[in-house]
Amino acid sequence: MNVDLSIVIPVFNEAGVLSELVARCREASQKTNCRYEIIVVDDCSTDDTPSLLQELSQEPDFQYYRNAENLGQLRSTKAGLAYARGETVVVLDGDLQDPPELIPELVNTLQAATSGLQAVFAVKESRQDLPWFVVGQTLFHLMQSRFGRVSIPYGAGSYCVMRRSVASRIVRSRVRQGNIAALVAVLGSCTGVVRYRKEARYDGRSRVGFRRLVWEAVASLAVIGALSRILWLMSAVSVFAGATWALLADSNRIPVLFTAIVGAAVLGIGGQVISFLVDRSIRPHR
Question: 53-60, long-range: CB within 8 Å, 24+ apart, which pairs?
């Protein structure tokens, strides 16, 4: 069967909402009048997700794949993109914070565009999360928008629609960590926006974990070039602080200034190395 639209959903321990998620994605996809497929990538779930996916796979518009080990959201998403056959590809999270009902609007916005639009982000206008998570997300998006070399709409996350060409470039890239939004922005060049209100998680728990969230944020900043620029800024601040302290210190000023310069050099060189390695990983391999 030929497919026009692929819905890619990475999941991990989402047995509580999986049936509802697929049903709502199916209903939303039917409203696009596209021939569609729903692809779920199970990131080595430990709950009843695998058995539920087996039941759901009886439907011809549904297919699932299971990772042999827990690879994380980005690599699971890339695996789903590799299997996708549609010329238009939607990616969304599996916890129902991203409402599947937005799929028709995302698809129509991309397909109706006449200006070379490559992808459309579903951008959160508001969200229901714990205060610490909201603060962290706000800080991340500020650094992303202020220091990134590409424009990513404030509030953009994993929920998006892209053309097949962008999906193929993402699959061929060697980036293994970060947010899919960063790769879409870097490889999709021209992007649009559809705004929505993000719902609370159905059970109030994040599947990613704090340490992985922080690492994903750092990796995403590296992908869009923000991390190297932040390190250069820290390098400049280090030199300025060291010089100021050396001028004000009563004791020997040379060690203070030397330490500041060495710290600045380490940060600056580190930024250049990160930029070089990330650029190589983003460049699609054949």
Answer: 53/18, 56/18, 56/19, 56/22, 59/26, 60/1
